[in-house]
Inverse folding.
């Protein structure tokens, strides 16, 4: 099997591996020097990062089709997690099965690069089809709440996240240093880096809470530290991963940092509304996939359309 | 040959359905018994419950795990009876018990062979995600085998995924809570009360969204 990745992506993967090695070593040293404290969650979290990195690498390194299937699976797990934490009705049994069917279709539109269908399939066709299917069942108590929840779930976990897949289908100019995988890697790297940077800055300097009613651990210091870190990294590396240039690199860093924060607190608000802390348990140390993808539900479509408007 | 179908069923049906299409979130997995004889007592919402419980145990134990199931439903002559006995490995029990002999006779024999019984003390699936009164047949078994552990397992989500009357599972994460094993406590009443209390305590660990 031949690994088919642009050079900057390979270097950056090396950089991420180096960061994870450093994080693993720090966690191991902390656990040894502070035996009184419990570092299990931190160590699980870093361990899970290794698995996420390996999964990402396998998904993008070999064949484009593997990446599309892997991303569709991510949407599948996220949507399943969403439906498992929200109120549902026995009457909607078959409507839910139909809603799942949107996932292969949505990723198929991305695969064949049919932009027009990709962009309206869930916001228009599923938006009209699912209530029709639901009304055929005829259960009116809770109808609006049920269809509203279902469509919000599809928009977040399938429509928004599928923009990651469409990045892979964008046509690239001859001889570019970047390709679809670079764009996807850039988006995911900066979004996750932003999450980690906001967390670390918040731990180091956090004093003033941003939005205590939703997410008591979010501080202005963490948020601004994250924005600065992400914007700086975006400015440094965007020319190697994207067609963006000059001020656009700074703007995309700001966009990802701010949108990532908002995605995070929006999903936090949903979890708080449902009275839970984590959306699942599939990623040890993190929670569910929605806990990890929360920022991406905002950054993926916004980064995609920023790029699409400027360059495609 | 029998074991072949049972392994095939778990590998090709139970695992893909439970681990990929649905997804299990198991709490207190360490309380699972490592082998038989044992009785697993679980709440019942869906045909998926048996698949979920089969998935909890390591593959090598599969031929020794025996779901106890109603003869009138699962032993309909023809494919159903063949499938139930050879592929799922059920022990049929006659629900009305007119036949004169002990309906649990095959269960005794299985426990004596060191097998693991799966019993749904509610007796039927009933309405999805609603627990009903337990029938006391399980106390009868526990009294006869006072040293065999009874392992309570509370499951949530299988009824949402595939409620009675439906035949394709909707993907949902399934929550499974394994309780501390119980043993016979001396009287049928005290045993059933303890079993019920264990289930109530396990259910209290769950934070389930509204389901109507």
């Amino acid at each position: 099997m031949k690994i088919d990745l642009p050079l900057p992506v390979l270097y950056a993967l090396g950089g991420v591996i180096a960061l994870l090695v450093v994080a693993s070593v720090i966690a191991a040293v902390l656990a040894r020097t502070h035996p009184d404290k419990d570092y299990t969650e931190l160590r699980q979290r870093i361990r899970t990062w290794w698995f996420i990195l390996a999964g990402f690498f396998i998904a993008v390194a070999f064949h484009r089709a593997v990446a599309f299937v892997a991303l569709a699976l991510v949407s599948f797990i996220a949507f399943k997690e969403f439906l498992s934490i929200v109120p549902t009705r026995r009457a909607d049994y078959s409507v839910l099965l139909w809603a799942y069917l949107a996932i292969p279709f949505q990723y198929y539109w991305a695969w064949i690069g049919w932009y027009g269908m990709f962009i309206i399939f869930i916001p228009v066709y599923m938006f009209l089809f699912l209530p029709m299917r639901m009304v055929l069942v005829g259960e009116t108590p809770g109808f609006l709440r049920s269809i509203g929840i279902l469509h919000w779930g599809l928009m977040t976990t399938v429509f928004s996240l599928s923009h990651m897949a469409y990045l892979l289908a964008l046509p690239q100019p001859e001889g570019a240093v970047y390709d679809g995988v670079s764009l996807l890697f850039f988006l995911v790297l900066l979004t996750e880096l932003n999450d980690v940077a906001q967390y670390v800055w918040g731990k180091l300097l956090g004093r003033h809470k941003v939005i205590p009613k939703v997410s008591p651990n979010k501080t202005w210091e963490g948020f601004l530290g994250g924005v600065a870190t992400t914007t700086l990294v975006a400015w440094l590396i965007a020319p190697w991963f994207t067609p963006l240039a000059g001020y656009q690199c700074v703007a995309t860093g700001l966009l990802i940092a701010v949108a990532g924060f908002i995605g995070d607190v929006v999903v936090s608000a949903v979890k708080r509304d449902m009275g839970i802390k984590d959306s699942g348990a599939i990623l040890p140390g993190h929670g569910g996939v929605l806990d990890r993808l929360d920022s991406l539900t905002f950054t993926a479509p916004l980064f995609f359309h920023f790029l699409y408007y400027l360059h495609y | 040959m029998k074991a072949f179908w049972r392994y095939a069923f778990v590998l090709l049906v139970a695992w893909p359905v439970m681990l990929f299409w649905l997804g299990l979130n198991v709490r207190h997995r360490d309380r699972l018994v490592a082998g038989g004889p044992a009785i697993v007592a679980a709440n019942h919402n869906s045909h998926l419950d048996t698949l979920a419980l089969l998935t909890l145990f390591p593959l090598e134990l599969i031929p020794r795990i025996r779901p106890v199931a109603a003869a009138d439903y699962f032993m309909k002559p023809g494919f159903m009876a063949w499938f139930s006995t050879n592929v799922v490995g059920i022990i049929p029990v006659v629900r009305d018990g007119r036949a004169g002999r002990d309906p649990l006779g095959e269960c005794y024999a299985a426990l004596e062979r060191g097998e693991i019984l799966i019993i749904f003390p509610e007796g039927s699936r009933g309405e999805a995600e609603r627990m009903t009164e337990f029938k006391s047949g399980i106390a009868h078994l526990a009294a006869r085998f006072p040293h065999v552990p009874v392992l309570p397992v509370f499951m949530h989500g299988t009824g949402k995924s595939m409620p009675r009357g439906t035949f394709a599972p909707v993907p949902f994460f399934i929550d499974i809570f394994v309780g501390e094993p119980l043993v016979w406590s001396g009287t049928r009443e005290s045993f059933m009360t303890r079993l019920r209390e264990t289930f109530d305590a396990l259910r209290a660990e769950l934070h389930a969204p509204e389901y109507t």
